[in-house]
Amino acid sequence: MPIAFAAALATAALATPLASKLSFALGAIDRPNERKVSARANIPRWGGLAVALGAFVGIATDLADFPFAQVLGLSSYPYFGWTQPEDLPLDYYSRLVAGRNMPVMVTEGGWASASAGGIVSSPALQARYVARHAALLDAVRARALLQLQFTDVDLAGVPPPVPANLPLFASIGLADSDFVPKPALAAWDALFARRYLP
User: Fold this and answer.
1) Is the dihedral of CA 86, 90, 93, 95 positive or negative?
2) What is the 3-state secondary structure (H, E, C) of 34-46?
3) What is the value of pTM for the model shown?
4) Where on the phi/psi map is residue 58: left (φ > 0), alpha (ψ -120 to 50), or beta?
5) Could you report the per-residue pLDDT of 39-92, keeping only the tens digit for each?
6) What is the spatial distance between Cα 169 and Cα 147, in angstroms, rounded to a whole number?
7) Which of 48, 145, 176, 190 could cross-link to 81 by cystine, CB 3.0-4.6 Å?
8) How far is CA 115 from the centre of its chain?
9) Distance CA 139, CA 142 (A)
């Protein structure tokens, strides 16, 4: 597992600057307008390609190291590579298992509902992600989806020193830290209420 993670991280890190340059060269730039949350100009849109490439390398390494694996468990935080949930390609998960007869489950992940660091988000974006995620899960006939963080992390209650990356994940809950439901919870409930079709 550490080798797969290192391979995926190195691939993504090396491919990110190339994806950024390619985005600018081919005009794949996200520009601010009245519909966008981000006011930052000229954000490269293909950074997710580098992340996906890293995932391919990591999964191939994992499957070679663990040939007995019967299910592919994925962890996904796509808001690090995409600014809009609808921009996630429909084959976001399915391309990872292409050519393999292996069931998939998402074991961890989500979309932040608040801006932090260089990430710009909102509760509405998070709710749209849950709806888009349903289509991505359907495309791969996912067996399971786990929501590890039901509520947001109250950063004021975290004893110092607060890890620098924690704010990037603190708002992926479906309810805020006071247990007040966010719009994403209604989208989650609709997904959860669907009948499972194996």
Assistant:
1) negative
2) CCCCCCCCCEECC
3) 0.69
4) alpha
5) 566 666 656 655 554 555 567 777 777 788 888 888 889 998 899 999 999 998
6) 13
7) 48
8) 15
9) 8
At 105-139, the pLDDT tens digits run 998 889 999 999 889 999 999 999 999 999 999 99
Higher confidence at residue 141 or residue 3? 141
Residue type at position 120: V
Nearest Cα residue to 173 out of 135, 147, 142 = 147
Please tell me the predicted confidence (pLDDT) of residue 1.
47
Alpha-carbon gap, residue 81 to 109, rounded angstroms: 13
Cα dihedral 83/45/59/138 (nearest 10): 50
Residue given tokens 């950074």 in the structure block: 47
Helices (H), the chain: 2-26, 47-65, 123-139, 166-169, 183-192
Query: What count of other Cβ atoms lies within 10 Å of the Cβ of residue 125?
Result: 22
Q: How many residues does the chain have?
A: 198
Residue identified by tokens 């830290």 is: 177
> In degrees rounded to 5, what are phi and psi of residue 71?
-145, 140
Distance (Å, whole) CA 94 – CA 136: 8
Q: Name the pairing type of β-strands 43-44 and 29-30.
A: antiparallel
Does residue 99 register a pLDDT over 70?
yes
- Going by their DSSP bridges, the two strands 72-76 and 104-109 should be labelled as parallel
For tokens 């290192």, name the residue: 6
Helices vs. strands in the chain: H and E counts, helices first:
5, 5
